[in-house]
Amino acid sequence: MSESQYCVVLFNSTSHAMHAEKICRKANIGIRLLPVPRQLSSSCGVCMRFFTPDKPKVEEELAANNAVYAEIVELDIC
Amino acid sequence: MNKNKPIYFDNAATSFPKPPGVAQAVAHFINEIGANPGRSGHRASIEAARVLFGARELVAQLFNVPGPNSCVFTSNATESLNLALKGLLRPGDHAITTGMEHNSVMRPLRALEAAGVSVTVVPCSAEGKLTPADVATAIRPDTKLVVMNHASNVSGTLLPVRDIGRVCREKDILLIVDCAQTGGCFPIDVQADMIDLLAFTGHKGLLGPQGTGGLVVGGRVDIAKMAPLKQGGTGSGSEYEMQPGFMPDAFEAGTPNTPGIAGLAAGLEFVLSEGVDAIHTREQSLMRNLIALLRDIPGLNIIGDPAPKTRVATVAFNIGGLSPSDIGFRLDDEFGILCRVGLHCSPAAHKTLGTFPAGAVRFGLSYFSTDEEIERAADALRAIAAGKSSS
Q: Looking at the partner chain, which of B57, B69, B237 has a beta carbon nearest the beta carbon of A16?
């Protein structure tokens, strides 16, 4: 089974996405904000994409900084 | 110095001048970013959302708020107070306030009273002082919250917010604080001061543009039970026709004043880089000088306790036999000194201070005021009190 190359963090609020972006940039994790892919729930319209191997680090940083997010999903196509 | 240059002593109404970065930040947003924050996924929209979020972080830093998303932006402290009061109080609830409030608290409370909320106004002394034990005594089983200002917009008198915060925690009720006169020029720590909801305005001590403000909503507030003032687009949960229930979107429907908030962020950066303690020290020094000069003017009576430790740099006074409006007109017309006279939207405070209905003359100083301006103003008042004209 092949692993997806990317994951995205979905957020309820754009403000939450901005918070998560700042945290990850500070932690030097390669991330990018982009519109939520059509196949996913629309949530706030912006999601944060990162390379799947960074997932533990992303989760750890977001938790450590009390960032709020809806969920992290693997992207099949992106 | 230029004797013709107007002296702006109306900073308690709105601060002027602003740090240079404020206008630049507004222009930069309008000219270079422009987009609607969080409404689209493109780079300009994301950049606009970053501007808003950056401002939330600065507010959180200034007031020691645990998380930036606890800050809701509004158009001013009045809207923030309306949101807090109308969002939380229901018919049958009891609310407590003080005898030193501005109409931004009294009018929403009176409207709520007409709708079935009971209101107790705890009296203050003729110097504008509040005794915490009197607030504790006023608390009943149906009391939901206390709402109070941090400093009076009339006399500059500080109210004992932290003591009231302690009382509210002991009785398990909420504390709403209106920091319109203290934000940016007096230390505020929502955690240490035990403030549950902090209503701030952007255009006074935070040195931002008019039309900006906010409400910090603390962890003891159940936002599921706090009604928004308005519903509408948030750029989130767009598939639902119900207003989202999470912070800050729950209370931020409609396109915000992003250019104004960009300017507010620049004001906040200035305040944080100078330091609230340094701003406070400077304003205290200016106020000491002003009060010392005013006390030497025969017939001039300072409203409230003149002791600097009990107040912020807003000083109200009257001159025996002269009407405040005449004094204000002469200060402007003959001496180029801009201040505010009358009731300052605070009939309750003026009643407490014994200056209702005539009102008073008010000088509101700022970090940018100077001792030379204060001396010129004192000279003008000395001439007016002595019945002389400017020439």
A: B69
* Range picked from A69-78, B233-242, B263-272 for highest mean pLDDT: B263-272
Task: Considering chain B, tell me which residue range(s) the CATH 3.90.1150.10 domain(s) occupy.
Answer: 7-18+275-385
* Chain B contacts to A (CB-CB under 8 A): 37-42, 46, 49-50, 52-53, 56-57, 66-69, 234-239, 244, 246-249
Helix (H, G, I), strand (E, B) or coil at B25: helix
| Among candidate residues B379, B349, B373, the one with its CA nearest the CA of residue B126 | B349
Is residue B388 exposed (0-12), middle (13-18) or buried (19+ Cβ within 10 Å)?
exposed
pLDDT in tens, chain A (78 residues): 456 799 999 999 999 999 999 999 999 999 999 988 877 876 778 999 999 999 999 999 999 999 999 999 998 754
Residue A70 distance to chain B (closest CA, Å): 11
ipTM: 0.89
Residues 6+ apart with CB under 8 A from B53: A15, A18, A19, A22, B68
User: CATH classification of B7-18+275-385, choosing from 3.30.470.20, 3.40.30.10, 3.50.50.60, 3.90.1150.10?
Assistant: 3.90.1150.10
Token readout for B99 is 């005898």
Decide if A65 touches B, using CB distance below 8 A: no
Answer whether A19 sits within 8 Å of B68, measured CB to CB.
Answer: yes
- Name the residue facing B238 among A18, A21, A42 (closest C-beta): A42
Say if the Cβ atoms of B39 and A36 lie within 8 Å: no
The pTM score is 0.95
User: Rg for chain B (alpha carbons), in Å?
Assistant: 21
Q: Per-residue b/e over A15-48, b at no fewer than 16 CB within 10 Å?
A: bbbbbbbbbbeebebebebbebeeeeeebbbbbb
Terminal alpha carbon distance of chain A: 18
Q: Cβ distance B65 to B71 under 8 Å?
A: yes
Residues of chain B with CATH 3.40.640.10: 20-274
The closest alpha carbon to B270, from B185, B183, B206, belongs to B206
Q: Which CATH class is domain B20-274?
A: alpha beta
